[in-house]
Design brief:
By secondary structure, the protein is α+β, with helices and mostly antiparallel strands. The protein has 7 helices and 18 strands. The strands form 6 sheets. The chain has a 5-stranded antiparallel beta sheet with strand order 1-2-3-7-4, with helices on one face. β17 and β18 form a beta hairpin. α3 crosses α7 and α5 runs antiparallel to α7. The chain is globular and about 70 Å long.
Length: about 375
Amino acid sequence: MAGNTFGTVFRVTTFGESHGSGVGTVIDGCPAGIPVDIRDIQRALDRRKPGAGSGTQNPAVTTRNESDEAEILSGVFEGVSEGTPIAILIRNRTQKSEDYSNLAHTFRPGHADWTYFKKYGVRDWRGGGRSSGRETASRVAAGAVANAVLQKAGIRVKAYTISAAGISCIARDMDAVDRTAFRACDEEAAKLMALRVAERRAKGDSAGGIVECTASGVPAGLGETVFDKLDAEIAKAVLSIGGVKGIEFGAGFGAALLTGSENNDAMRVEGGAVTFLSNNAGGILGGMSNGNDIVFRAAIKPVPSISLTQETVREEGGAYFDSDVSIEGRHDACLCPRIVPVIEAMTAIVLADMLLRNRSARI
């Protein structure tokens, strides 16, 4: 099975399944001398856990309550990276495989069950196996290490929900993000999101949303000019997250409605430094960072695991038959709150990789 490694210099490999012994990551290419604190990794993982930061049971998230306790197996000595592969393990402790026994021969609509089966001829029906959102815990752990690299360069990545279940944020209050159940940047909008999603969950349905991400302190010149453009690499990283169906940078699709004079980000010199008067480019020009904040938005699909009865098919002895399915078990009703730290992690991994790649760009 290919496709489990991301990055060129800062390379991240994830492993494990939703209902296996655990999930984890191996990070190769992290420079020696980077402070790697297990407490920072744990804090990142805790932000991904159900209900983290909200103070109450979040109507959007699953009741599966994994401890997500990280173990550093290699590559770190006395709190500092050694320049060797860093391996991190997160054991699964509360999986309930029996919740999925009725799906051994039935394909869940909206999931990767059918495509996995057609590709490999076999699939792990216990929660989706490798395609489960559980895999993202590995990404978050790797992202915490990437953030340690970025911290030395003064780069900070912050993602937040700007829309969920049709409710959009008006304010952009970054202090509110980790106080709200939806990791939204508007506390009043977050309350309405919770009510709307609770209503959909009560009906056996789910909701989607939009997450925005900002990377500040990024120096100009990160990224490559042709196939490895910075926006292309971020897009690949973010679209590799299950549940993400679209991405736009800066003005995004809105740029199609603008004129060139409206869309171009005018430039001036202030205090001896080059600045931009707007950021329609989302901080990236010609595939490279321009010194502005990098800003993009990701579209998150509704959670496909719903208890409403859905039409599907089942496989028996190599033949297919019409069937109906109702998904039982513990599932999110909206991915936005828990996907926020995953988007942050994948963005940090890309930026750490590009930062290290840039060291060989010129002497």
